[in-house]
Structure formats: structure tokens, C-alpha cells
Amino acid sequence: MTLLLRGPCRLLAPHRHATCRPRAGAVCTSPPSSRFIPLPQRRNASSSSTDNNAQQQPPSPSPAPRRTRPKTALFFPGQGVQKVGMLAPWLEAFPTTAVPIVEEIDHIVGYRLSDVIANGPSKDLNLTPNAQPAIMATSILILRILEKEFGFKVDERVDFTLGHSLGEFAALVSSGYIEFEDSLHMVQKRAEAMADATRKAEEEYGGEYGMVAIVSEPPHMQQLIAAIEEFVGYGSEGGKSESAENRSPIEQVLIANVNSKNQIVLSGNIERIKTLVAHVRQFLGHDPRAVRLKSDSPFHSPIMKPAVGVMHRILNGRSRRVRGREGEDIVSWPGLVPCVSNVTARVFGSREEVKDLLARQCLETVQWWGSIKYLDQEEKVRRWVGIGPGKVGRNLVGKEVGMRGKDAVKGGGVWAITDPSEIEEVLRGLEETENLVEEETE
């Protein structure tokens, strides 16, 4: 497999000499050029195409055909990345775009969520009914800033979207399947239903509920997953919801996430999880590391089944919050860009599948590792851009895709935009890899 650089090598940053720096095995098919493409500037409503300075800029080369660039995936984070003050840098850097979006967020959720994000305290922001809409809304705010301030277009620059658990709602918004207003409302109702399900389990059955990450060596992971499924009695897709009918919450524990080749997350009753971990250590002959996560609910466990019904009812209803879409189906089909489902680790195949899998997602295992492997190995995605608070998603992606493409960046690259200061690096990285393509060689 050989990397080819098609077209002139270009730099984003102005006033630098263009150079061609392909990695080992890469071929530059044209000599270095002194032309450059300036880094996309923030849009200014007062600017005009007749501006003298604009006329003096060198003309941009014709855009390359879509298929000549590396395939690109956009991904969004899940719960746990929330941080007090995470909106402040965006409001300071881009007030014209950010302030109206923040006002819209508060209007949709019906209270000043922006105050909770800005001032906390952390214990309030970490509550599921606040954390989930806060993370999802912040992710979309960052995306909207990229679109409005820098002209970033998902349908032109991205081939796939995906999101980790909660992040799937932002992914579906970014790829045109659900409008932001409807999606944020769904996230709020989902979070409330999940928190309520946990509260009812605690009141009726007692016990403590939460999530524990299990970190093991990659060679042991498949054996570990099989042992856990045997121990808890769920071994097939759909087994969670079926078996939940016959078990009390105090007995329920499931694999919530398969995050990477060496990490899974268990969800459910904490004492039951401790028993399971002790069982694994005794009978498998190795000692996986167990880390309690900061979660107030056992997400993706059978305890979450009531939330599935709430989501089904909303998704089977009609849009009521989007001007011009009143009474229309809440899910648009087709979308602008294929989106990968957490449940199947494959792209959604129909409007009905979006509704079913998105509703079931809060109960079923998040197949994150499978999703990344599918895009990396089968779809040959080579550029990955994370959008939203925190860098957990970027680290998980980087673990799987390894070094490929640019020398200094995993996967040709794996980037994350969590702060305004990172925008320039990401846009430059995308531009520098725009003409890197892989061709099979005999």
C-alpha cells in the first residue's frame, strides 16, 4: 500500500513557503509550490467580494474531487467529559455566534442550563439531567461555530459521523437526521428518564448503582468478555431487555461499553460488579484493573429499560420545536452523511432503524471499539475529528487506528476540537492531508 500526494502540496498558514513533507513511503506527484491556501478566516458580514485585499489574493486551485481525499469521520463525546466553565472560551472568542445559541439552549430545556455550566457547582453539573444536555449542546455549539465562523461544511468534508453513547445524538444532528431543537429535547427527556429509573431502583431494592471500567491486556479481552457474559447470563443481542424482566435491579449488571481493545465498562449494582470482578480474577488467571467511574446511574444496563419506552414515544412522534417542520417526522431520511449506530457498529440503514436503535441505545452495549474498527478497517477512514468537551474520544480512537498517514499524527490524523485554540491546528491538519490517498499496489 502506497500513499500518494495528488496535486500541489499546500499549507494553510499564510506567509510560509510551501514544502512537501510526505512520510516514508509517500510520493509527491508534483513539485513544491509557492502558492498557499490561507487558513479559513472568521467570516465577517461586512466583507465583500469586491474588497481590494481580496482581489489581490492568489486564486484558489480547483477543489479536488471528493473521492481523492482521505475518508474522514466526525465523532462526539459521551457523558463524563462535562466541566464547569466549558462554554466560557467559546463565548469569549465567538460571542456573535455563541450567545444566540446559548440562549436557544436555555429556551429549549426550559431553564438556565448555561448558568449551571458556567457556575456549577460540579455536583450539580454532574447530575445526569444537567450533564447530558450540557455536553450535547456544547458539542453542537462548537460545530456551529466551525460552520458559521470558518465555513466548515460537514456534507463536504466528512464521510461518516458517530458519537459515544450520548454523543450519538450530536452525531445525528451533525449529519442531518435530527434537528438540534428536537435532539436536545430528546436528550433532556432521556436523561430525566435514566435518572428516574435509577432512583426507583434504589428506593425499591436498595443497593448502590454505578459504572466500573475494567482494563485488561488485549490478549485477554475476548476471554474476559465471554466470562462476564456467562456470569451475568446475557450472551446475545437483545438479551439485556429480555432477561431484565426476570431479574431484580439488585442482581443486574451488564457490559455497558466495549471501548477499546483493552477496556470495557460494567454497569449495574456495585456489589454485584465487585463479585463479578472477583470471579474473573479467580477463574481466568489474570488480574484486570477495575476503576470506579464518576456516574450517578448505571447506564446501558437493564435498569435503564424504562428510558427505552420514553425514547420510543418521542421518536415515533412529530417535530414540534423546529420552525417550518411542525408536524413532520422527527427523523429526516436520508441524512447528509452516514452515521454509525452504537448498537450495531454499522451505519443506520433506514428511518425506522434510526428510531429503534436510538431508543434502545440507552439499554444496549455501546459498541465503540467495533465502530472504530469498522470505519478504520472496512471503510478505510483515515482522518478523525472529535468535536466537544474533553479528549477521551480522541484517545480511544487513537488507540485503535494507530500510526498511519502523517508521521506526527495518528491515523493521518486524529484530532479534537475542545477549545478555540485548537481550531487552527485541526483545520491546518485537514488541509495538509487533503491530498493524501492510499492506493493498493501489487
From TrEMBL:
Disordered: annotated segments:
22-72
Q: Which reaction does it catalyse?
A: holo-[ACP] + malonyl-CoA = malonyl-[ACP] + CoA
- Asked if the record carries the keyword Nucleus, the reply is no
Please report the name of this protein according to its UniProt entry: [acyl-carrier-protein] S-malonyltransferase
Q: Which UniProt keywords apply?
A: Acyltransferase, Transferase
Question: What's the Enzyme Commission number for this chain?
Answer: 2.3.1.39
* Major enzyme class: transferase
| Native organism | Podospora comata
Q: Organism's domain of life?
A: Eukaryota
